[in-house]
Write a structure and sequence with these properties.
This protein has helices spanning 20-26, 166-173, 209-221, 243-252, 276-283, 298-310; strands at residues 2-6, 10-13, 18-19, 44-49, 52-54, 69-71, 75-77, 81-84, 97-108, 113-120, 131-137, 140-145, 155-160, 180-187, 200-205, 228-234, 256-262, 272-273, 291-296, 318-322. Strand 11 (131-137) and strand 12 form a beta hairpin. The strands form 4 sheets. It has a 6-stranded antiparallel sheet with strand order 12-11-14-9-10-13. It has a 6-stranded parallel sheet with strand order 18-17-16-15-19-20, sandwiched between helices. A 5-stranded mixed sheet has the order 2-1-8-4-6, with helices on one face. The radius of gyration is 20 Å and the shape is globular. The chain folds into 3 domains: 2-90, Beta-grasp domain (Ubiquitin-like (UB roll)); 97-187, Beta Barrel (Elongation Factor Tu (Ef-tu), domain 3); 200-322, Nucleotide-binding domain of ferredoxin-NADP reductase (FNR) module (Rossmann fold, 3-Layer(aba) Sandwich), CATH 3.40.50. With 328 residues, the chain is of the alpha/beta class. Helix 3 runs parallel beside helix 4 (243-252) and helix 5 (276-283) runs parallel beside helix 6 (298-310). It binds flavin-adenine dinucleotide and FE2/S2 (inorganic) cluster. Flavin-adenine dinucleotide binds at residues 131, 142-145, 157-160, 162, 164-169, 188, 207, 210, 297, 321, 323-327.
Length: 328
């Protein structure tokens, strides 16, 4: 039985029931993957033609509502089909690892955001924009996105304390400098695409600034020259943080434009006020050919996805990292 892999036009012979990711790997098709467990979304690809069987894990993150997208690691080939693999020239493979780390800094950045720095016992390679699962204790584990780059000797995270939050409550009350933390990762597919040289839209809601900082820092480190429009949406003026990092990035990357947008209570004379998605809508006409990185709360990411699509950004060029809650 054959499957046809687009856009490479490769025909691969497979046995019925074979795992799609394994088939692609064995045929040396360039394909990103990470968790191998249906969680991170990195191995997403599209079924153009034919049927496949999905063994969907209960922790799968929502895709974008289009049922033709599948996670290759959770998919089994049952009949001849045509599969489209995304961006074969932008593949990253950082098999997830389990690494011990030590808390070296916990500090307040706003009334409810903490900066957490962990020093891993061994270096961990990741792509700008990815995240890891942090296990503080066996009952306190959650994903958090790195704000820095893998060449740094420490991981930096920005954690917003959620009222009644189980893990953020633990971080606020119990976590101390010197504590050991288990780090599992990296995970996630909203990483910086290095080959793209056109304009980039970055939208960060709250602590979504962490992965967006990582992406822009990565672009600067790679000497990418792309125009970057970074929108940082916060609820109120007291939620703004990280301005000195953004100013430094603007000095390093003159093609970076930063817009801080305050949803309520802002000073209309000195600040951009309103919903970040409305401001993007007003600022831009056609965004055809752009890439969009959208990070933060799920409603903001969903609204920004709608705006980006309406303005002409290709669905396959929207990289979303929505901070879904885990609930366990
Ligand atoms: C891929 C990924 C990356 C993430 N990266 C980051 C990051 O870099 N920084 C960061 O701060 N968070 C990030 N998160 C969110 C994080 O993993 C936790 O969900 C969050 O810290 C809350 O955990 P908790 O255990 O304290 O809350 P829970 O005990 O899980 O939730 C308590 C209550 O608060 C609600 N709640 C949870 N989170 C929020 C929220 N953000 N806003 C409003 N209500 C909420 C829940 O629905 C629930 O009712 C990320 C999530 C994902 C999936
Ligand atoms: S590798 Fe398939 S979802 Fe993570």
């Amino acid at each position: 039985m054959d499957i046809l892999v687009k856009p490479l036009n490769r025909v691969i012979q497979v046995a019925p029931g074979a795992n799609l990711l394994k088939v692609l790997q064995d045929a040396q098709v360039p394909m990103s993957y990470s968790c191998m467990a249906g969680r991170c979304g990195t191995c997403r690809c599209r079924v153009i033609d034919g049927e496949v069987m999905e063994g969907v894990g209960d922790q799968q993150r929502p895709l974008d509502g289009d049922e033709s997208f599948v996670l290759a690691c959770q998919t089994y080939v049952t009949e001849p089909c045509t599969i489209e693999v995304p961006e074969p020239d932008e593949v990253v493979v950082h098999p997830p690892r389990i690494v011990k780390a030590t808390v070296v800094t916990i500090e307040d950045m706003t009334h409810d955001i903490k900066r957490l720095v962990l020093r891993p016992a061994k270096p961990v390679e990741f792509s700008p924009g990815q995240y890891v699962q942090l296990h503080f204790t066996k009952d306190h584990a959650r994903p958090y996105s790195m704000a820095g780059l893998s060449r740094d000797d420490a991981f930096e995270f920005h954690v917003r304390l959620v009222p009644e939050g189980r893990v953020t409550g633990y971080i606020a009350r119990d976590l101390a400098v010197g504590d050991a933390v288990k780090v599992i990762g990296p995970l996630g597919s909203a990483y910086l695409r290095r080959k793209h040289d056109g304009p980039i839209l970055c939208v960060a809601g709250g602590t979504g600034l962490a992965p967006i900082l990582s992406i822009v820092r990565g672009a600067v480190a790679l000497d990418m020259r792309n125009p970057i429009h970074l929108y940082f949406g916060v609820r109120s003026p007291r939620d703004i943080y990280g301005l000195s990092w953004l100013e430094q990035l603007q000095r390093e990357h003159p093609a970076l434009t930063v817009h801080v947008v305050v949803a309520s209570g802002g000073n209309t004379a000195t600040q951009r006020c309103g919903l970040v998605t409305d401001v993007i809508e007003q600022d831009h006409g056609d965004l055809t050919g752009w890439r969009a990185y959208l990070c933060g709360s799920p409603p903001m990411v969903e609204a920004a996805t709608v705006v980006a699509r309406r303005k002409g950004v290709d669905a396959g060029h929207i990289y979303a990292d929505a901070f879904y809650t885990q609930g366990t």
